[in-house]
Design goal:
It is a single chain. This protein is mainly α. The protein has one domain. It is built from three helices and no strands. Helix 2 packs across helix 3. The longest helix has 22 residues.
Length: about 70
């Protein structure tokens, strides 16, 4: 159940962010890769060895909130 909710949040967030990266696929790919690497690095430093699903969702939501402050 939690995994399904997480996948729905990723879909919703990426769908909303995608509008701002229209015709800039490389920029969006770099943003997604940077978020993934940053989350994995923080997880590694914290000693967390499992898949970091929730922090990745929160990092995507942070980008969306910065693009759409209202």
């Amino acid at each position: 159940m939690n995994f399904l909710f997480g996948m729905m949040m990723i879909y919703y967030t990426l769908n909303s962010v995608e509008k701002y990266f229209e015709n800039k696929e490389a920029d969006m790919t770099v943003m997604l890769g940077f978020n993934a690497i940053a989350v994995m690095l923080v997880g590694w430093l914290a000693g967390e060895h499992m898949v970091l699903h929730s922090p990745y969702i929160f990092s995507l939501m942070y980008v969306w909130c910065k693009l759409v402050p209202d």
